[in-house]
Amino acid sequence: MQKKYIVGIIILVLLTFSTLWCYRHFSGLQTPDPSGLPDSLDMVVMPPPSPPETLYGIEKDSFIIESGHIQYAQNLASLLSSYDVEYSIIHNLAIASKEIFDVRRMKTGNKYTVFSTKQDSIKTPEWFVYEIDPIEYLVMSLKGDTLVYRDEKEVISKRKTTTGVIESSLWNTINDNNLNPNLAFDLSDIFAWTVDFFGIEKGDHFTVIYDEEYVDSVSIGIGEVHAAYFNHRKEPYYAFRYEQDSIMSFFDEEGASLRKAFLKAPLKFSRISSRFSNSRLHPVLKIRRPHRGIDYAAPTGTPVYALGDGRITHRKWDTKGGGNYIKIKHNSIYTTVYMHLSGFAKGIKKGILVTQGQLIGYVGRTGLATGPHLDFRVYKNGRPMDPLKMEAPPVEPIHEEKMEKYLQYIQPWKEELDSLTTGYMQAKKEPIDSLKVVL
């Protein structure tokens, strides 16, 4: 019994010393991180590898790349044959691509690219790419599997603003400022119902906020015009792009549509060579007689457009000197006539309905005419009137219940237009005509 007692005491002493030793050696340790990683460990984060560089979606590093442009009379067969592609492969590709792109429509001057591999001094073409236009391209596999598909390059839109003062014409101002020429066409379309582009005067000025689109850092044209201001003969005109009833159109600062019942003129970028007159010396007959219209001098073949919606009542030859002419009845009040045409647009015939801005014919010099021009006439209630004095009411204004929302939307656009216009005119030391303030 005494021996068991002594053994118990010894075990108790050993446990006590063991506990004290463990406490002294481990009491300074912190609770381990649940992640299992010590705090003091320096982490080295490696960046992800760069994605391989591609061209038309094909990895460039894997190929020898050769580019060129389609030559006159060159077709798919002659082009690919020069790269030693088997004729059977070319034939099968031409058949496989019919539903995607007809290779017979390949245009002279368009770019193409061939991707080839090289092994033991032998070069093997594997991919052919043809640029259909600046955005779309056609890809053909040259491996014999007849894989053909279309794809598109990335289009990047850049917001731009510009302001210009007319010295001679809108076209020349756009060109002199090294702007995209399509901007002139866009402005003429937007303001076609409010600005007389045949009566542009020196000092007229404009400001535009728009997107220009780029592919491969090269401009491919104008995207959306968001807002524009045109001061014509000291009259300010605003245009704001806005969607109403799922239709995108342009409205002014008061919510009125810029689209009128009639265009200002039936053709673009020309000049008036003769005005409406009750007594004009006829250039061919050399006698004085009324001229019940206005003459627009323009090169033969210049497109002529319908001034407004209506039905063609005449499309024939005028035996009294008008040559080829078209007459359109727009409503119970207005009728327009287009004379001396070199020809009629496809599908234009008596009885059909035409829409505003639709191509109806081409400027010519048929009938009694000394040079190519369009003799344009307007009849109101059957009586001739000066086309330049014709006024047309706006259509489709912003709905009353949507007006507040519309005005809130255009306010920042208008403020930017006004700021750009004022800043530019002050820098040019040009007189600033009053800007409308209605917001």
What's the short version?
The protein has 439 residues and is of the alpha+beta class. The chain folds into 3 domains: 54-152, Nuclear Transport Factor 2, Chain: A; 155-260 and 395-439, Nuclear Transport Factor 2, Chain: A, CATH 3.10.450; 271-389, Glucose Permease (Domain IIA), CATH 2.70.70.10.
Structural features:
single chain; alpha+beta; Nuclear Transport Factor 2, Chain: A; extended; 439 residues; ten-stranded antiparallel sheet; 6 helices; five-stranded antiparallel sheet
3D architecture notes:
With 439 residues, this protein is an alpha+beta fold. It has three domains: 54-152, Nuclear Transport Factor 2, Chain: A, CATH 3.10.450; 155-260 and 395-439, Roll (Nuclear Transport Factor 2, Chain: A); 271-389, Glucose Permease (Domain IIA). 19% of the residues lie in helices and 36% in strands. The protein has helices at 2-26, 76-81, 87-96, 170-176, 182-190, 403-428; strands at 54-55, 58-59, 64-69, 111-119, 122-131, 136-141, 148-152, 156-165, 205-215, 218-232, 235-244, 247-251, 271-274, 277-281, 288-291, 294-297, 303-305, 310-318, 323-329, 334-344, 353-354, 359-363, 373-380, 383-385. Strand 14 and strand 15 (288-291) form a beta hairpin.
